[in-house]
Amino acid sequence: MPMKMAASAIVSPYHRDPLLLKLKPSDTIAKPTARPTRPLKPADSPPSVADARRSVEANSKTSRRRSASDPSSPSPESPLGVLKRKMQFRQRLSSRVFGDNLTPGVNYLTYYDVTLRTEDIVALKDDWLTDNNISFWQEWLEREVLPKYPEARIILMRPSLTFLLMQALDLKGASNALPDLRKVTHIFLPVNDSRARDKADGGSHWSLLLVSCIDGVAFHYDSLGGSNFLEAQKCADRIGKVIGQALRFHQMEDSPQQENGNDCGVYVCILMRHLLIKRLLNANANEKVSMSMANKLIDAKGGRKEMMKIIESLRKEGERRRSASPYARGRAHDGAPRID
């Protein structure tokens, strides 16, 4: 569906996104036939909805998968199944290596308001992306991309705030924790299928909701067919109430489809950047912009590598700044490198 642009939209040269590939006629996209499930993992104490902006962000973890190929696996609802999945997750986490050996639970990089832990780095290799992975990507886009377009009024809603928006019993109270949306033209919201009001680390699938406040439309991009259809509708309904607008909901049937069970978060990140830069920031204010992603393939593996490359570059810069600081001389370097 074409979308109008704000009068303040910036016109700039179009650059090809190397992670988005045109679909050749001979290519096919495999749509997974089953919705993936995740193993339970050791969780911190559940966050309070009333304090969600602080506690949900701090406690939000990853959605992890449980192999569906093992027919002998106990039911995920049984105590035995819960115990087995917890053990599987701990074993997988402790045995994985990404570059250097990583100790679970250790801070890896603090980038402004986001602290990545070693679990997030492990997940970035080939597992489900965590809340922190997606929050980092949004923070990076806000720091590296949006400042080049000072007139843009676009919000990248953090996963924890989307969770709060969808689960809070008091929507009016929850809206006080959200960014100021009164003059915003577009809102990006990562949608998770968790339905547990008291757990920010649940769920098994990510999708992307893009709200155009100008047109009153919510576009839903789901890399697993319509897996998050109901969750996205609920999110659109709730954000519409917050901004005082009844949104028309559009399920984007031509969204690029993942070919495995764990790339949904990567698809969200790559689609978010592409739609932000190519369809919104670089669009002509006098033209209608198609929000379709038809005939596009996503290089999920390349996306993971690019995100990791950015993280490692920032980590090195944080180490350099720390070493150059006069306050660091003669001290042990405790904690993660920082960029702020």
TrEMBL record:
Pfam families: Peptidase_C48
Family membership: Belongs to the peptidase C48 family.
GO molecular function terms attached to this record: cysteine-type peptidase activity; deNEDDylase activity
Alphabetical keyword list: Hydrolase, Protease, Thiol protease
Superkingdom per UniProt: Eukaryota
PROSITE patterns in the record: ULP_PROTEASE (PS50600)
Basic and acidic residues bias: start-end ranges: 331-340
UniProt-recorded name of the protein: Ubiquitin-like protease family profile domain-containing protein
GO biological process: protein deneddylation; proteolysis
